[in-house]
Amino acid sequence: MTLQPRIEHKTSTCPHDCPSVCALEVEIVDGTTVGRVRGSSRHSYTAGVVCAKVARYAERIHHPDRLTHPLIRTGPKGSGAFAQVGWDEALDRVADAFRAAEAAHGPEAVWPYYYAGTMGLVMRDGINRLRHAKGYSGQLSTICTQLAWAGYVAGTGRLTGVDPREIADSDCVVIWGTNPVHTQVNLMTHAQSARKARGATIVAVDIYDNPTMRQADLALLVRPGTDAALACAAMHVIFRDGLADRDYLARYTDCPDDLEAHLRSRDPVWAAAITGLAVEEIERFAHLVGRTKNTFFRLGYGFSRSRNGAASMHAALSIPAVTGAWRHRGGGAFHSNSGMFGIDKRLIEGLDATRPGTRMLDQSQIGRVLTGDAEALRGGPPVTALLIQNTNPVSVAPEQELVKRGFAREDLFVCVHEQFMTETARMADIVLPATMFLEHDDLYTGGGQQHVQLGLARLPAPAECRSNHDVIVALAARLGAEHPGFAMTPREIVDATLQASGYGPLAAMEDQNFVDAQAPFERAHFLDGFGHPDGRFRFRPDWTGTRIVQDGPRGPASGMPELPDYWEAPLAAATPEHPFRLATSPARNFLNSSFNETPTSLAKERHPTVMIHPDDAAPLGIGEGAWVRLSNHRGAVTLRATLFPGLRRGVLIAESIWPNDAYPDGRGINTLTGADAPAPLGGAAFHDNHVAIGALPG
Asked: Where is the 4Fe-4S Mo/W bis-MGD-type domain (predicted)?
């Protein structure tokens, strides 16, 4: 008799670096294996939908190449030569190396380095508890959100916005600076539902004809970094044609008369020359959003990828303030709710153990830090020991050649806690095997929605894998670091954090797995006042005074626009030597460097390519599938060309992030990206690069 498998359906939360933070229903087969993964139909934002990457998560969690034992390097750095070692020996070696670094140069010579390979608060941010308890170098987490957050908060004063479920009440949905078909499928589902149910018009603004643009009713194809010109021209038309909400402007904004006067010279003809759009397209967009008061502006992280992104975000965000869309259900704007949840992270991060004056190093500038750049080191000692969790900087960080050079230092000790043998893990002295999200307890907040969610352990961890929390606790014991969080389990930390944050005990949330934290309508729409002291939306932002969750290194804010405007100065403009603008947009089947080890994702993406307009390719002798070299002052990358008419002339798109070894010379796309700190609060402008392109023989 054949026994049927025992299938249980368990709740969880997707841990990956995506605004949707999907609530999940996971099939657990015989208590040990993942079956199908679905979006939770009980969750009002996830609404039963999940991306294809996560739906096939069994490929990832049961991958044969997953790390399952601690390893010690036995050959040259980067050679991939490792031997299996026990946990105690591995942790002892890490602790010895950290003590030696501290003895030679002080505690700031140790740099715990992390990011969002998991978005779980305990497993992502717990590394900071060790950092604070020991006085190790701090981290400015600039690599993703800085520019967009700064531009949004400069206008609203608070990092919150309209309930994204209100898209169901919208008659126009503007998707600007994000490609949700690739990166947050739930957003596209809500927009399409509004179109089907009430005839809502979907507008997409982007720099290439991606799947989101192809599903839009109005697709506005702009040159990279020119979003603010479109925004200003749209507001010009709205004022000119009597579509501005004068009452709202008077009650809720700081200087509407100054804005109107400023915009008189920013007409559609001016913007067309900058953006590449036709005057008629700009006029149509302006009339659509001006007349449709319940227009929902969904503003994405594409704004964070250009050096003028903060100013561009602020300009786009100003449109609903001019139209008065904020006062209407289904109208207004949304970027992130990351400022809404009020999570008390003292226990998770050890915020009560911080040491004033500890230097803060910019994570985006890890290449400069590790190669001894005095400015990047903030005048402090060299970094001689790294602990890395949840990130793969040798692949994903900008200025890749500097990053590689830094990791190759013989005097640098590196411990990497990882799920796979990534490029960064190959450069390590000690590699520790990490759990995945179904193998540990954690807590999540939905930056792109409004729920606090649980992700509890549903499977045993394979072999010798240990969680981030377990590793931090074990190192703390060896290093003499003290904090109450080191004596608690992840579940206990989640429970205590929920109660300290006003969400009640974990047990009360466990059955549902999430709680809706959405603010009331008046608060979400800023009808009780914007987040500035005067309660008004700021058309004239205080760029030097803007603060977000974590400030980065402050860029040259003195040159930023006084009022919404196209700010060209900081962009990596085309030059005769480097006549093309390159953007490294996200591939549909990868998420940063996650999923680029799974067979289906690899098969669907095939190999690294760069999109080039046929009219640009022809005079360069570049045909479909030809090998080409992209180059600038930072280095060169070899990959295949694909001819693609759906972008502006002079623009190149390389969807990423592929592993470095997917390129013939081992140099990944971030060889070409820069780590300079844009205004006002730093960041990493991954879509703002100038390059040359040339065909290779054969």
From this structure: 7-65
The closest alpha carbon to 208, from 518, 516, 611, belongs to: 611
Number of continuous H segments (helices) and E segments (strands) in the chain: 26, 25
Please state, in angstroms and rounded to a whole number, the distance separating the CA atoms of residues 318 and 538: 8
Which letter, b or e, does each residue of 247-265 get, where b requires 16 or more Cβ atoms within 10 Å of its Cβ? ebbeebbbbbeebbebbee
Beta-carbon contacts of residue 295 (< 8 Å; ≥ 6 apart): 170, 171, 172, 173, 174, 288, 289, 320, 323, 325, 331
3-state secondary structure of 339: coil
Burial class (CB in 10 A: 0-12, 13-18, 19+), 230: buried
Write the pLDDT tens digit of every residue in 20-68: 999 999 999 999 999 999 999 999 999 999 999 999 999 999 999 999 9
Instruction: For 433-486, give the DSSP string.
Output: EB--GGGS-EEEE-TTSSEEEEE---SPPPTT-B-HHHHHHHHHHHHT---GGG
Q: Which CATH class is domain 71-144+341-437+461-502?
A: alpha beta
Give the number of C-alpha atoms closer than 13 A to the C-alpha of residue 18, restricted to the C-beta side. Answer: 28
Determine whether domain 161-335 maps to CATH 3.40.228.10. Answer: yes
C-alpha 678/C-alpha 310 separation (Å) is 9
Whole-number Å distance between alpha carbons of 660 and 669: 8
Cα–Cα dist 86/70, whole Å: 6
CA 512 to chain centroid: 28
Which residues does 281 contact at the CB level (< 8 Å), separation at least 6?
Answer: 218, 220
Domains 161-335 and 580-695 share a fold: no
Which token pair is 408?
């190759």
C-alpha distances (whole Å) from 407 to each of 371, 372, 399 are 9, 12, 13
Give me the residues paired with residue 362 across strands. Answer: 140
Nearest to 269 by CA among 242, 232, 303, 241: 232
Section 446-465 average pLDDT: 97
On the CB side of 35, CA atoms within 13 Å amount to: 13
Q: Top-level CATH class of 580-695? A: mainly beta
The Cβ of residue 273 has, within 10 Å, a number of other Cβ atoms equal to 12
| Type of residue at 48 | G
Exposure string for 395-414, b = 16+ CB within 10 A, e = fewer = bbbbbbbbbbebbebeebbb
Alpha carbon distance 604, 7 (integer Å): 29
- What are the backbone angles phi and psi of residue 697, rounded to the nearest 5°? -60, 145
SS3 140: strand
Q: How confident is the model at residue 551 (pLDDT cuts 50, 70, 90)?
A: low
pLDDT at residue 553 in the model: 65
Per-residue pLDDT reduced to its tens digit, 562-588: 999 999 999 999 999 999 999 999 999
Angle, helices 309-323 vs 146-156, to 10°: value is 30
- Count the neighbouring beta carbons within 10 Å of the beta carbon of residue 625: 11
- Contact in structure between 477 and 98 (CB atoms under 8 Å): no
Q: Is the pLDDT of residue 468 over 70?
A: yes
> For the sheet containing 82-84, what is the strand order?
82-84, 71-73, 430-433, 413-418, 385-389, 110-114
Rounded to two decimals, the pTM is 0.97
DSSP 480-539: T---GGGGS-HHHHHHHHHHHTTS--HHHHHTT-EEE-PPPHHHHTTTT--SSTT--B-S
Determine the Cα–Cα distance for residues 524 and 347; give it in Å rounded to an integer: 28
The pair of structure tokens assigned to 657 is: 């992030």
What are the tokens at 6? 């025992």
Exposed/middle/buried for residue 487 (C-beta within 10 Å: 0-12, 13-18, 19+): exposed
Token look-up 């608070």 returns 158
Using the structure block, give the residue that is written with the tokens 């289904």: 330
Distance, CA of 210 to CA of 215 (rounded, Å): 9
